[in-house]
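hiii so um. not sure if this is the right channel but i have a protein structure encoded as tokens and i wanna go backwards to a sequence. like what aa goes where. can anyone help
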């Protein structure tokens, strides 16, 4: 797929001015140049053109708000002075895997005053003596070169900082806990209903027992009365005999 068509698809019915991130990795550039990008992408902050066969960035439009530019795995060997003119506020630039052989090629990047991170992995320039020391001298505004600062401390992953590792998992866990808590909250209600039902059954049983006890007591009273009546009859018979 060529770059123009890819840009059209990436727009997804949006206008260029609505786009802040644009990923064009692995598409085809015509004659090694950027195509289809215009000044209308005025809000663009992140542009990725990895492995698209670029040999030049000369056709890059004016992108004042562009902060991160991915140009790795292309065939760029020079012409970087365009970047200071077209992307004056660039903070991160990745030129890994290009054909950059000497420091003079990256010297124009001095004009990118906001540039904090530069990657030149797998470029021939990294084989030069005192490569890191010389790049930091050439570009004093840099904080990180190939992912490390002057003290060889690794650069923090900005994506990881924005989205801490495991955060989504924790959110999911929290959701599960909330669901469990919700179920637990609902469960006591069911238990209460069962307990109320049990209490009603117990009360019913007690009432039945009371009814049974009452009947037994009446029967005992009847028997007692019959016994007393029989005793009186016997006494009367005895008196008659006398």
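sure thing!! here u go:
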């Amino acid at each position: 797929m060529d770059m123009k068509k890819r840009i059209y698809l990436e727009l997804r019915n949006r206008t260029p001015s609505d786009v802040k991130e644009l990923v064009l990795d692995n598409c085809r550039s015509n004659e090694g140049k950027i195509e289809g990008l215009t000044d209308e992408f005025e809000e663009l902050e992140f542009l990725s053109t990895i492995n698209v066969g670029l040999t030049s960035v000369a056709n890059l439009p004016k992108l004042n708000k562009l902060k991160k530019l991915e140009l790795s795995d292309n065939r760029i060997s020079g012409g970087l002075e365009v970047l200071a003119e077209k992307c004056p506020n660039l903070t991160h630039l990745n030129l890994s895997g290009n054909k950059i052989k000497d420091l003079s090629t990256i010297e124009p990047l001095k004009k990118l005053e906001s540039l904090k991170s530069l990657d030149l992995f797998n470029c021939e320039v990294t084989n030069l003596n005192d490569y890191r020391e010389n790049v930091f001298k050439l570009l004093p505004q840099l904080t990180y070169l190939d992912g490390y600062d002057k003290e060889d401390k690794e650069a923090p992953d900005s994506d990881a900082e924005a989205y801490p590792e495991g955060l989504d998992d924790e959110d999911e866990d929290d959701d599960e806990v909330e669901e469990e808590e919700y179920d637990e909250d609902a469960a006591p209600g069911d238990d209460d209903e069962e307990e109320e039902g049990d209490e009603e059954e117990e009360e019913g049983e007690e009432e039945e027992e009371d009814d049974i006890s009452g009947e037994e007591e009446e029967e005992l009273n009847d028997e007692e009365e019959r016994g007393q009546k029989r005793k009186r009859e016997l006494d009367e018979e005895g008196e008659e005999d006398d």
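oh and Residues 159-188 have pLDDT under 50 and may be disordered.
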